[in-house]
Amino acid sequence: MKAKPDLGFWKLWNLSFGFFGVQIAYALQSANISRIFSTLGADPHDLSYFWILPPLMGILIQPIVGILSDRTWCRFGRRIPYLFIGALVAVIVMCMLPNAGSFGLTVSAAMIFGLFALMFLDTSINMAMQPFKMLVGDMVNEKQKGLAYSIQSFLCNAGSLVGYLFPIFFAYIGIKNVAPAGVVPDSVIYSFYIGALILIGCVVYTSVKVKEMPPHEYAEFHGIKEEKEEKANIFVLLKNAPSAFWTVGLVQFFCWAAFMFMWTYTNGSIAANVFDTPVIEAGGKVVLDTKSIEYQTAGDWVGVLFAVQAIGSVLWAIMIPMFKNRKVAYVVSLLIGAVGFISVYFIHDQYMLFISFLLIGCAWAAMLALPFTILTNSLSGSHMGTYLGLFNGTICVPQIVAAALGGTILAMFTPAHGLAPEVNMLVLAGVLLIAGAASVAIVKEKKND
């Protein structure tokens, strides 16, 4: 088997540059979905159910993209065609989703429209996102994978930073930040429009700059007999998966469940605990007034906090390679993130929350880089895309479980005829990260030669 050559910095950069645009779309979705559906009229106890669709589509789509791209080759490559098609669909849906309340539909019809738009948005984002991880696995040698995934992590967080800050930026320059009941403010709508434009530009750049290995070259570098490449089904591949697949997957379960709670409940937590959003009675329940300036300002501030998290992630990503042991880096990162989540409960100042979310960013940095570094170093070139697609299940399943149980858990915390204490779910997220840190002990890495 031929050794893959070292790649220059800009080749590694180009492999992942499109991730910047994809992550802007993902950040806009993550920071604004609860805000959008609350504005449309969703009850806080039902919010988590709207979040089931994104990971559900991920667990369906990413393995399919992995399997098909493993078997694809055309003039544009094997991974890039899926990347480009996913991005194109995402652009279209990003222009539709925030307008769910602007078409004169009833509340229920607007929510159904929003749900279908969210389903297609997350499907397309997943389709565009997965090929970037596969490109690194395909084209980068083991020595440089840590650097390649660090670059990908940096671009991911830079894209998140931009996406999170768009709504407050547009509000700052004078675009309306409030709207009639059931209508999403223009500051959010325009954020999705500009995000869509940047996404397609970044993906076109990567598509033009990256030349994938042709099949014969790929086979030489990955030790595959091209004409006799094994064709195993998913169940056989799972049975033969390296131990790192399952052990890192357990850590992933706790981590991604924690972040699902963050995406779902941060908006309500900050609105109630920091911005003193007024409450109203709706449908016999006490809920936050989503038409109030306090609620929409809190929604903008959540974008700022998520941006601070992205900054913390970028800074911590620089520190992670300084650890001699990846598992130690993993444990320390998750424990720091747990402190960040739990501290939100005790903080009522909007600026002091910067500390909490900087700490949360440390856990996010580890989650972006370390699992894929550990896994891809334990895989051969054969079925690389399929395994990475299947590994996405360790990201999607915990989110589905957290979304399915979130409303029930929140109801357990909610007093009779009282406001749902959404901040309690962030404390639970911290506890889950502690469990994830404890699970790192069972991870067995394949040592690099």
Walk me through this protein's architecture:
The chain has 449 residues and is mainly α. The protein has one domain (9-224, 237-442): MFS general substrate transporter like domains (Growth Hormone, Chain: A, Up-down Bundle). It has helices spanning 9-40, 47-50, 53-70, 80-94, 107-139, 142-172, 186-209, 215-222, 234-239, 243-273, 293-319, 326-343, 353-376, 384-391, 393-413, 423-439, and strands spanning 279-282, 285-288. It has a two-stranded antiparallel sheet. The radius of gyration is 21 Å and the shape is globular. The two termini are 15 Å apart. The model has no long low-confidence stretch (mean pLDDT 86).
Main beta-sheet annotation: 2 strands, antiparallel
Estimate the helix proportion, in percent: over 70%
CATH topology: Growth Hormone, Chain: A
Low-confidence spans: pLDDT under 50, at least 5 residues?
none
Number of domains: 1
Secondary structure topology:
Elements: H1 9-40, H2 47-50, H3 53-70, H4 80-94, H5 107-139, H6 142-172, H7 186-209, H8 215-222, H9 234-239, H10 243-273, E1 279-282, E2 285-288, H11 293-319, H12 326-343, H13 353-376, H14 384-391, H15 393-413, H16 423-439
Antiparallel strand pairs: 1-2
Helix pairs in contact: 1-5, 1-6, 1-7, 1-10, 3-5, 3-14, 3-15, 4-5, 4-7, 5-6, 5-14, 6-7, 6-11, 6-13, 10-11, 10-13, 10-15, 10-16, 11-13, 12-13, 12-16
Briefly characterize the structure.
The chain is 71% helix and 2% strand.
Describe the structure using short key phrases.
449 residues, mainly alpha, Growth Hormone, Chain: A, two-stranded antiparallel sheet, 16 helices, globular
